[in-house]
Design goal:
With 218 residues, the chain is of the alpha+beta class. It has a single domain, classed as HIV Type 1 Reverse Transcriptase, subunit A, domain 1 (HIV Type 1 Reverse Transcriptase, Chain A, domain 1, Roll). The chain contains eight helices and eight strands; from the N terminus they run H-H-H-H-E-E-E-H-H-E-E-E-H-E-E-H. The chain has a three-stranded antiparallel beta sheet with strand order 1-6-5, covered by helices on one side. It has a three-stranded antiparallel beta sheet with strand order 4-8-7, with helices on both faces. A hairpin with a 5-residue loop joins strand 2 and strand 3. It is globular, with a radius of gyration of 19 Å. About 4% of the residues have low confidence. It comes from Streblomastix strix. This is Reverse transcriptase domain-containing protein. It holds the Pfam family RVT_1.
Length: 218
């Protein structure tokens, strides 16, 4: 299971005072009191517009995401906003379903945050370090969509309506939400282990002087 996977470990998170952050998950604040009305005016079913080959690719992705708990079927009457969804090829091979959340994003309150970059990595990097890079597959999807937000993250395909259980890539608050969530875990690791650790995007970098110790720690 990938979708909202962090919720599976809520008992463990309670011990490190992280349970509230995990359960809040991906929630959003509206830009203004009028945002609900503006989005309601855009409430209409948006049908998949790709060709038959792309539709079959979408079939497969939906099947996989249902099995992984990333999405779920939703009753049409509950949906407050449909989003355009399409398929792209990933650079390393394979396919990815993309949700175009631009109409929703225009009505979400923006929240500034700073991400780690190469300069931050160089600050903790030491000569002759051994490094290990962890790529968190479907990283954003591990964070749960909570509250009313899931009603605004719907899409339809072949007459069936779906919504997100795991946070999608297309929503504007996703990078900040994921970074805030993963940082708590990283701080916990730093307090318990000698490994130097830093996250950027959906990767986590581990650094240590000794290779054997690094392999043991991770």
């Amino acid at each position: 299971m990938i979708g909202a996977r962090l919720l599976l470990y809520s008992k463990a998170y309670e011990k490190i005072n992280m349970d509230k952050t995990i359960r809040i998950g991906c929630c959003a604040k509206r830009k203004s009191q009028e945002s609900r009305v503006i989005l309601a005016q855009q409430r209409r079913v948006i049908y998949f517009s790709g060709n038959e080959e792309q539709a079959e690719q979408m079939d497969q992705l939906i099947k996989e995401e249902l099995e992984q708990g990333i999405i779920k079927v939703m009753n049409q009457q509950e949906i407050l906003l449909w989003n355009r969804t399409f398929v792209i090829k990933k650079p390393g091979g394979g396919l990815r379903r993309i949700m175009d959340c631009r109409p929703l994003n225009t009505q979400l309150k923006s929240q500034h945050f700073t991400t780690n970059d190469l300069s931050k990595v160089l600050e903790i990097w030491k000569q002759n370090d051994w490094a290990s890079l962890m790529d968190i597959k479907s990283a954003f999807n591990h964070v749960a969509v909570t509250g009313e937000l899931e009603k605004y993250l719907a899409f339809t395909h072949r007459g069936v309506h779906y919504t997100q259980v795991g946070m999608p890539f297309g929503i504007s608050i996703a990078p900040r939400t994921f970074a805030k969530t993963i940082q708590i875990l990283i701080d916990r690791v730093r307090s318990k282990s000698p490994v130097r650790i830093i996250n950027f995007a959906d990767d986590i970098l581990f650094l240590m002087k000794e290779r054997e110790q690094l392999e043991k720690e991770i």
